[in-house]
Amino acid sequence: MSKLIIAIAALALINTACKTRTADAPFGDHYNVSWNTQSENSSESMPLVGGDIACNVWVEEGEVLFYLSRSGSFDEHGAYLKLGRVRIKLTPNPFDDAGSFRQELILQDGFVEIEGKADKIALNVKIKLWVEVKNPVVHVDVNASSPLKVEAIYESWRTEERELAPGNYGERFASFNLMAYPGKLVRSKDDISFTDRGILFYHRNPEEKLSPELLIRMQGLEEEADGITDDLKNRTFGGLLFG
Fold first, then answer.
1. Which intervals hold domain DUF5703 (predicted)?
2. What is the value of pTM for the model shown?
């Protein structure tokens, strides 16, 4: 049996406290959510949480994908951002064969299990995704009946600065305090690099920004500015993908 563990450690330099919660009552297996077909896209994803980390997990065209998010991941305009997306590729691929497929949310133990059986190549693979409660770490455990190649790919759409188009309920909707701002609204890009340990990715808010400075001026609170906490300045959040 082959086994590989991939971990994604989320980081945040501000508001990094994690909370532990214990279920008041056990869940029976009949409450589990189970699928026997792959998803069309992320709209058919399965939720996975632990502490202040949340993921959207799904299998699309034979590849396992999940979005990452963490509480407190606010950009320079106050928008709540995803940390990125991770794609898992297996070779040979047990999800390409016309065998069996199962994706199940195990509620009692709080993990997602994905199983693929490829009868033509006699390959059985189980993938377990789970999130630590006391530490901001997402685990992807891959168990296979025979050796296989596993690729873990980090994907980001914030690779360059982007001007958010004006207008209500459009690209600026997540930054609702600045949704009607008449000037330019630019979101800074993420920093992504390869290190000895893995792929490091993070978003760091700039020192010069509109929030809360613009809001302070609009409300005539300049005299009270020194007493207003700016929790967006230099706020940094991201993670490290390694395995």
1. 35-242
2. 0.85
